[in-house]
Amino acid sequence: MNNSGVQLKLVLLGDSAVGKSSIVLRFCKNQFSDEAEPTIGASFINHDLELEESEVKLQIWDTAGQERFHSLAPMYYRGAKGAVIVYDVTNNESFERAKDWVKEIQEKGSQNAKIALVGNKIDLDEYRVETEVAEKYATENGLLFFEASAKTGIGISEIFVGLSKVLPKTPIEDDLNSSELSSDEVVNLEENDLPKKKSGGCC
């Protein structure tokens, strides 16, 4: 490797129940639960990722999707070099809300932040958001585009590897300060049990 010791802060955004927490859990721990409760506020987990050219420490922030927590989102995407905006392929309304998140990150997020648009739950048959429609929107807005299933694991690693490859690499000591929050504001997934999810699922 030509580089090592770099950190990337990523934030996941999207409606409640689109599967943000399940995506993080599948990527970081290769696990999935049908009984995860909604995220409250935000949580984060650190995950080491080896790319061909560098070793990267990802700091992944998983934010609450409920509207009542929307006002807290800027606190969590501040300083993020990348945003993973998730929608449910079986729920067209979640795709429209994803567009709102794209606009917000482009207008208020970190300068030059890269955005990955992710359609989750492709293991289900009830498609409401056609791949061609979402991909066209992503292309027109300069976004990376992925479809995935947190339940089966299909396409999950590609999201984080693909996004990490296009982000500038910053030495860890230069980047940590932009991510500092008090312990009252976050829950570290590394220190908690697997999330329990109510019916309706974030697969």
From TrEMBL:
CDD domains: Rab5_related (cd01860)
Entry superkingdom: Eukaryota
SUPFAM superfamilies per record: P-loop containing nucleoside triphosphate hydrolases (SSF52540)
Keyword Membrane: no
Molecular-function annotations in GO: GTP binding; GTPase activity
Sorted UniProt keywords: Nucleotide-binding
Pfam families: Ras
Keyword Signal among UniProt keywords: no
Name assigned to this protein: Ras-related protein rab-5c
Taxonomic classification: Eukaryota, Metamonada, Anaeramoebidae, Anaeramoeba
